[in-house]
TrEMBL record:
Cofactor(s) required for function per UniProt: Mg(2+)
Occurrences of domain Helix-hairpin-helix DNA-binding motif class (ranges): 52-71, 92-111, 127-146
EC number(s) from the headed UniProt entry: 2.7.7.7, 4.2.99.18
Keywords annotated in UniProt: DNA damage, DNA repair, DNA replication, DNA synthesis, DNA-directed DNA polymerase, Exonuclease, Hydrolase, Methylation, Nuclease, Nucleotidyltransferase, Sodium, Transferase, Ubl conjugation
InterPro entries, alphabetized: DNA-dir_DNA_pol_X, DNA_pol_lamdba_lyase_dom_sf, DNA_Pol_thumb_sf, DNA_pol_X_beta-like, HHH_MUS81, Hlx-hairpin-Hlx_DNA-bd_motif, NT_sf, PHP_dom
Subcellular location: Cytoplasm
Reactions mediated catalytically: DNA(n) + a 2'-deoxyribonucleoside 5'-triphosphate = DNA(n+1) + diphosphate; 2'-deoxyribonucleotide-(2'-deoxyribose 5'-phosphate)-2'-deoxyribonucleotide-DNA = a 3'-end 2'-deoxyribonucleotide-(2,3-dehydro-2,3-deoxyribose 5'-phosphate)-DNA + a 5'-end 5'-phospho-2'-deoxyribonucleoside-DNA + H(+); a 5'-end 2'-deoxyribose-2'-deoxyribonucleotide-DNA = (2E,4S)-4-hydroxypenten-2-al-5-phosphate + a 5'-end 5'-phospho-2'-deoxyribonucleoside-DNA + H(+)
Function summary: Repair polymerase that plays a key role in base-excision repair. During this process, the damaged base is excised by specific DNA glycosylases, the DNA backbone is nicked at the abasic site by an apurinic/apyrimidic (AP) endonuclease, and POLB removes 5'-deoxyribose-phosphate from the preincised AP site acting as a 5'-deoxyribose-phosphate lyase (5'-dRP lyase); through its DNA polymerase activity, it adds one nucleotide to the 3' end of the arising single-nucleotide gap.
GO MF annotations in UniProt: exonuclease activity
Native source organism of the sequence: Actinoallomurus acaciae
Protein name: DNA polymerase beta
One Pfam family of this chain: PHP
Amino acid sequence: MGRPNDEVAELFQEFADLLSITGEAAYKVRAYEKAARSIAGYAEDVSTLDLKGLRRIPNVGEAIAKKILDYRETGTIRQLEAVRAKIPAGVRALTAIPTLGPKKALVLYEDLGISSVDELAEAIPAGRLEGLKGFGAKTEENILRGIELMRRAGDRVLIDVAMEVAEEIVAALSPLARRCEYAGSLRRSRETIGDVDILAAAADSGPLMETFAALPLVAEVIAHGDTKTSIRTVKGLQVDLRVVPPESWGAALQYFTGSKAHNVRTREIAVRAGLKLSEYGLFDVESGDLIVSATEEEVYERLGLPWVPPTLREDGGEIEAALRGELPRLVRLEDLRGDLHSHTDLTDGIAPLEDMVAAAAAQGWEYFAITDHAPNLFMQRMTDEKMLAQREAVHALGERHPDLTLLHGTELNIDADGEVDWPEEFLSGFDLCVASVHSLFTQDRDTMTRRIVRAVENPGVHVLGHPTARLIGRREPVDCDWDAVFESCARHHTVVEIDAFPDRLDLPADLIRRALRYGVKFSIDSDAHATGHLANLRYGVGTAQRGWLTPDDVVNTWPLDRLRDYLGTG
Ligand code: DGT
Ligand code: CA
Ligand code: CA
Ligand code: ZN
């Protein structure tokens, strides 16, 4: 089950969506949205707080705190049930389309009787929306893009959603097993996960299968057997548990980690060596004997290969590199010495500066950059005065954290032409500037390329933030000549960010590998808007590994002096 905070946050987000359908005032809708974000990002567990404790959560007042208590007592919120009852399920189905707002969904339902995504996907090309107020060609195109995005995402979930489930199951089963780990795409750190594969080693599978099928997160048992049991969680995610004898652990873990393409290659190598590799183990073909393979290292060794890190197992050249003894020493979470992108409640973060800095200090880092949004993201209401006051506060706070160097930075907005919020003179007052695209995502390729390259060339810009601006399952990456951008980044020493937020993971792994060829340097950043978000860095590291990055490629594994030298800010 999700963290109680996430569950409550989802309810308030839904409440906000439904209220906007019923025509509730915008400020009220926003209040619930803000509360949802605050609750999701709040460090303390809402299920343990009393009314007073709840009211200390930013953006949570008396009324919302009471609704949380109501939820805890009854498992639901009365006001939410009331609006749910007012809004037809058909409208709610339509609002699942990322590019269709609740108001337009209601119009489609009321005026045309459209009540499902499939129906809408047919109605648009059939011209049924023509003449409907507020639905021009551009809107139609947008909706179709949203449907396409949604269909492509299919039933896959973001990596953090799958990880939470996997870790809960591994923790529950480990006491009953010799070994227990998650395998499949999750172990390879793919950006989205189809289903979770859990592998356990035990002499007797019975108790493991029983415990698994009875876990509180199970909504449905799909198949129950001695070697494999599959369940569906309350959130609809499928989890397969396989139990193997301890002597097959290494071969089974290798098999179920995949990818299929990587396994095809390892099996071929086995065949050439007179061996047979399957989920049951590694066998000598002639004698039929099981070659004991308690670890993956042993399996790879018998194949004449060094152990291949799971994040490389995509048949993307890792077998060849392994045979040549040239696998990269991949960057790890422990290598990070700091974070170059974070927000506070001065803009859209939910934690005050002091809390963000304390959380960074607790990581044992050497440096930490605070990079709140610059003024052109108008909703955030930044001003020069606020920014300079924050700088003072950062300097003062720095004295309380002698082991942590605080960098006062900002996240600039790359405007339509590649300009950023402030002139060079003001920019030079910052220790570190991230610049990102936050608007006009659909510019054509040439315009977008010129726009981003211009920002990259700006001497006041140090990091290109979430470069493709994609939101997984919700917004396409911008169209851009990435070779031109990467070439420029390498030349101007502009660092390319790998934003670790699970719905961004931006730059994606395939583009990381492309950028690497230009000698680009990267930063793995949390883009944290709450203290808990620092934990997302693990997904940024996973993505960096899938891009074959070593610590030398990642600037925030470097000592601060080297980083400053590279950026020319020393
Ligand atoms: P997913 O679940 O779509 O995110 O991706 P995976 O890679 O977790 O795929 P999944 O769950 O179908 O299978 C887990 C692993 O088991 C897969 O990476 C490799 C192995 N595997 C499953 N079926 C086959 C198969 O038919 N042939 C081979 N060689 N390996 C398989
Ligand atoms: Ca899987
Ligand atoms: Ca599976
Ligand atoms: Zn941003």
